Amino acid sequence: MAAIGNLAGQLMEDEEEAARRTRVFGALKTYCTELLQLIQSPKHQSPAIPALLDFLRSSSSDDLQPFFDYTLFPLLLLLDAAIACRSSEKIDSDDRHKAPDSPYVVSDIVAEGVVNCLEELLKKCRLGMLNQMVAVLKKLTHGALLSPSEATEEFREGIIKCFRALLMNLCPCSDDACSCKQITGVPALLMGEEMQSHLARPSTCRVGAEECLLAFLQSQDAAAAVGHWLSLLLKAADVEAVRGHRGSARLRIEAFLALRVLVAKVGTADALAFFLPGVVSQFTKVLYASKTMMSGAAGNLEAMDHAIRGLAEYLMIVLQDDANASGIDLPLNPTAEANSKMHHSAYKFLEELRQLPAKDQGNKEIIAEESGEEAKIKVTTDIECQNQVVDPGKGFGSFHVYRTKDWIAKTSANVQKLLTATFPQISVHPSTRLRRGLLAAIRGLLSECYYSLKESRVMLLECLCVLVVDDSEEVAASAQEFLEYLFSSNKTLNVEHDIVEILSRLIEKLPKVVLGSEESLALSHAQQLLVVLYYSGPLLVVDQLLHSPVTAARFLDVLSICLSHNSAFKGSLDKLVLARPSGYLPAVAELKAQSYSSKDYSRSRGHLSVVADIPLGYMRKLVSEVRMRDYSGEGWQSWYKRSGSGQLLRQASIAVCILNEMIFGLSDEAVKNLKQMFHKPTTRGDDFPREHPVMDRRSWEIPKDEGARGLLIDCIGRILHEYLSPELWNLPLECGSSTVESDGEVGQIPLHLFTDAAMLQQ
Question: What is the pTM of this model?
Answer without folding.
Answer: 0.78
